[in-house]
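Extended Data, record Guanylate cyclase
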Amino acid sequence: HRRVTALDLGGMGLVGMIPPEMGNLSFLSFLNISHNKFHGSLPFELAHLRRLKAMSMRVNYISGEIPSSLGMLQELQHLDIAHNSLTGSIPLAIFNMSSLQIMRLRDNDLTGNLPDNLCNGIKSIKEINLPNNYLTGKIPLNLASCRYLQVLVLGHNNLTGKIPENIGELSMLEELYLYSNQLTGNIPSNLSNCRRLQILALSSNVLSGQIPEGIGRLSFIQGLDLGRNHLTGSIPLDIFNISSLQIMWLGNNKLTGSLPNNLCNGIKSITEISLPNNYLTGEIPVNLASCKNLQ
């Protein structure tokens, strides 16, 4: 007998609903039906694909709720149903898929809160990608238990409360996107412990207090976007010594103080410095010409 173990129908211009019979392909380990025009809801029968390791259905017109039965796919490592019209809350069963490494549910119409014990069941998770939804509630405090997490994207939701203090325990974190929510409080100072961080995007929230000094110790950071908040105080000098920094967006805050005279000595890679609508004083640094990549 020949068994179907992989089904790749991505970008084929297929239309209609996802056939429930797909659940009969019990030896399937890879399923890709992304970039098509499938509509309707996800069939419950997909839960029968117990050997499935990767499922991609991104960029379709799939609607309805995510069936909690998907949580039965305990071999699944890669789940991508981004860019659809899914509604309802993310089933708790999804957060108990012990093999899951990639969770991409961005650009849907998902609502509800993230579970408080978010990381208890998905210990292997490397990427949580949920922006452009309607998620509410707080960022779970036990986020630090997702210790392999490299990418956390929760931007453009309706999240409230503070950024958890223990976020600095995510030593593998490379990208943190929390922009366009209603987050309050200070930027956690121990973010400086996330030494691998390359992107920090916290813009368009209600964050207050000063920019933590330790941000300047993030030696791999390329993009720093803290604009459109209520941040006060001066810009920490160490930020102007991050040699990898390419984009600095700190506009629309209440920042004070002056820019350092040797502004460009340490940030040689910088392509964009955006600081409008603050209370900065002093002169424009004379060594601006040293920022040769500035666009």
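Summary. The chain has a mean pLDDT of 97.
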